[in-house]
Amino acid sequence: MSLIKFLTSKTFLKQIILAIVGLVIFCFILLKWLNVTTNHGEFETVPDLKGKSIGVANLELHENNLKLEILDSSNFNPDYPKFSVIEQDPLAGAKVKDGRKIYVTLNPSGFRKVKIPNLKEKTFRQAKPTLEALGFSIGTITFTDYLGENEVVKLMFDGKEIKEGDELPKTSKIDLVLGNGNRPGSN
């Protein structure tokens, strides 16, 4: 039997038609299955979680058939309560499928602690930007008898002397005791 006779035979044509019909039925069943399993056209609206505690956020997401996934905590933001949501992805109002994970970033319990650098015998002009770059602010400035004029003699926090390596919360107000250029005990 030649190839041309085989390709034009009734048996071959029946097999081709059966294969095409089978493929169409398979695609139809696959598309119907996908519609059922993916809930095509059904969406949940993501609630606004910003400023809410973990418990409240989890409850709201559970009511909307969504899941909470905590990514990390961020830098402390005093505008939000401790351990509350400060960022979310996807954003509030977005349309998502049932069971979708909503990723949140939490506000930590306070500012992170920062180590105090060695600023003794540095000038005020050097100490001020160093402290501000670390997130501290300058409190009161007092002067004492010390030969180096405007040099840092002591760093104080809440009335106590702080030393290099001590840790304070970021945004703490540090008081500086500077030298006035007079020799100690020369009055």
UniProtKB/TrEMBL annotation:
UniProt keyword terms in alphabetical order: Membrane, Transmembrane, Transmembrane helix
Keyword presence, NAD: no
Transmembrane segments: 12-34
Domain PASTA: 41-108, 110-180
Record flagged with keyword Chaperone: no
Pfam families per the UniProt record, alphabetical: PASTA (PF03793)
InterPro entries xref list: PASTA_dom
Protein name, per record: PASTA domain-containing protein
